[in-house]
Write a structure and sequence with these properties.
CATH superfamily of chain A: Electron Transport, Fmn-binding Protein, Chain A
Oligomer: homodimer
Distance between the termini of chain A: 58 Å
Shape of chain A: globular
Order of helices and strands of chain A: EEEEEHEHHEEEHEEEEE
Number of helices of chain A: 4
Structural class of chain A: mainly beta
CATH topology of chain A: Pnp Oxidase, Chain A
Largest interface: A-B, 62 and 62 residues
Number of strands of chain A: 14
Radius of gyration of chain A: 18 Å
Number of domains of chain A: 1
Helix content of chain A: 10-25%
Strand content of chain A: 35-45%
CATH architecture of chain A: Roll
């Protein structure tokens, strides 16, 4: 089951810094690549940034379509995440090669990947200098999705045994998203005044 | 013990998407704020991006000095991370309020915070449009540091019981950086050709 994520809360899908899969499509071409370098940029309307190298097929499809999706893979997709990060879509369709199944986005043409825990449909806000000089894309999030068992009301539910997101290091090594915890102000050192009276 | 991190590997301090503390200084003022929105932007020379809101004292100090540091807090600093993210340095020195101790950076004037697991000294690459329109800063990493017990040769050693980095969600809730794991290509579905012969 997938439900729409309130766009005002969409940034929270990315706030903890998971590695994402960037899916894209233009004409009869489609592609998917891995990106450890993405982050939220604004709350409302939600914007994100992502780095997409000039040499990638994804770059070509994103520049042509002005659209892409950030798919947040669960740990079961870690090997696929590593693999699609090391192959070019120019050498063959990665969806077929890795038996990836997809479903249709609502607002964009790029396919969304099954096996992920969240999805952000994005439209590029063209900033030529960033794109040309830094491979940096800014985009508005126009729709977002999650299974409410994984994410609802702006919070992840990994602690209930649901699949966790992942964080890429290098060379096929990842961290799983770890223990959730809350801090309270009472954990802080007492204000200096408490020592004075 | 702190050792310099090879600048070519400095991006790996941020690659897994930890929440950071941004420290800054100008004249006789200094400040520290929390930022969940930062990411690597380039490998060599290493560049990073971070979002610094217009209303913050940090923004003022960073614009004036052209410098800041990204400090990667360990879990023990989570309550402080939450607190410095909810207070303005204009209302009083947060280092004093939260008993934060610091040490000197090598290449910049901003102080570096004790209790962190990594530090990136950054010089702003001025991009006025990004700063003005998106609160987005691009900077070059000019020095980076870690205790080699926490991070060496481009890899974190959290699994050895060392303090872990943290990932902010919202409302005082964080994830700890979780289990490290490696994937191998053999975990992938076999190529379609294997089914054909």
């Amino acid at each position: 089951m997938r439900q729409a994520v309130d766009l005002k809360k969409a940034y929270r899908l990315l706030n903890h810094g998971p590695t994402v899969l960037v899916s894209s499509a233009y004409g009869d071409q489609r592609n998917v690549m891995a990106a450890a370098w993405s982050m939220p940029l604004d709350f409302d309307p939600p914007k994100i940034t992502v780095v997409i190298d000039k040499n990638t097929l994804t770059r070509e499809l994103v520049e042509a379509s002005g659209e892409f999706a950030l798919n947040i893979p669960a740990r079961a997709l870690a090997a696929v995440t590593e693999a699609v990060g090391n192959r070019s879509g120019r050498d063959g369709d990665k969806f077929a090669e890795f038996s990836l199944t997809t479903f249709e986005a609502e607002k964009i043409g790029a396919p969304l990947l099954d096996g992920c825990v969240g999805w952000l449909e994005c439209k590029v806000i063209e900033e030529r200098r960033n794109q040309d000089k830094y491979d940096l894309f800014i985009a508005e999030v126009v729709a977002a999705w999650a299974d409410p068992c994984d994410f609802s009301n702006g919070h992840w539910h990994f602690e209930s045994g649901r699949p966790r997101s992942i964080h890429y290091v290098a060379g096929g090594t990842f961290f799983e998203t770890g223990e959730a915890f809350s801090v309270k102000e009472v954990n802080l050192p007492p204000p200096a005044a408490a020592f004075v009276d």
